[in-house]
Task: inverse folding
């Protein structure tokens, strides 16, 4: 396991027998998806963090995409967060994150997780774009998209999208919800999420924060903001919470 993010010129960390290997970046929301699934299902694994600005040569040879997350299992590397999440849920059947025996519900949940990509793309445009100031109009578009998820929770009548505990949809959308408070830190109170508009999502978020899988990889809004500021300055501080 690497404590710090490995960069060009580094040596590959030997695989640990009996453990799945996750290649990650501590502030990548897509990589966080893989962490959440591994933690929720208690899958033995170790983590190697990758410096995405200066990627190790051995990593580029090992993982065709050069992206994170990636996992090494049985001598094969897999990448793309949703593919990894589904693979892990099928290979390790304990604590299922998709509903078993209901292919229609599983398909609908996949569509729901995919719909959240509308929120993620807008969030990236809001806080990671080239303009120095964030546009409140983009935030309103984000809220318009999140209305769908507020209504979906009401329709399902459960504290989580999966039911009484978090499941695949919950873990797949959580990384960006974790970062919403960061937006207020960066832009001020005009970027605050309206609690009265998203009462169910706020209750859902409170429940997610109590989940052990979330706690194990959680970053505070301040930590997310600090990293984003370093990223936009061209000198991403990957290790600011690892030491």
Result:
């Amino acid at each position: 396991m690497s404590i710090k993010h490995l960069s060009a010129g580094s040596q590959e960390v030997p695989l640990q027998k009996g453990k799945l290997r996750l290649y990650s970046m501590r502030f990548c929301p897509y990589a966080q998806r893989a962490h959440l699934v591994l933690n929720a299902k208690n899958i033995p694994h170790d983590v190697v963090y990758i410096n995405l600005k200066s990627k190790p040569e051995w990593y580029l040879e090992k993982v065709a995409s050069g992206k994170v997350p990636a996992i090494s299992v049985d001598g094969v590397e897999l990448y793309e967060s949703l593919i990894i999440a589904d693979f892990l849920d099928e290979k390790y059947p304990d604590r299922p994150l998709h509903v078993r025996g209901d292919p229609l519900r599983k398909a609908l949940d996949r569509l729901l997780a995919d719909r959240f990509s509308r929120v993620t793309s807008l969030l990236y445009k809001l806080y990671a774009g080239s303009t120095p100031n964030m546009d409140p109009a983009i935030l309103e578009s984000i809220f318009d998209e999140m209305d769908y998820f507020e209504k979906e929770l009401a329709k399902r009548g459960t504290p989580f999208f999966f039911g009484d505990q978090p499941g695949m949809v919950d873990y797949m959308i959580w990384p960006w919800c974790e970062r919403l408070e960061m937006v207020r830190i960066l832009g001020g109170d005009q970027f605050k999420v309206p609690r009265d508009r998203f009462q169910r999502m706020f209750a859902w978020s409170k429940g997610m924060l109590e989940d052990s899988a979330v706690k194990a990889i959680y970053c505070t809004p301040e930590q997310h903001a600090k990293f984003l500021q370093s990223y936009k300055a061209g000198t991403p501080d990957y290790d600011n919470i690892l030491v």
Summary: The chain is about 50% helix and 5% strand. The mean pLDDT is 94.
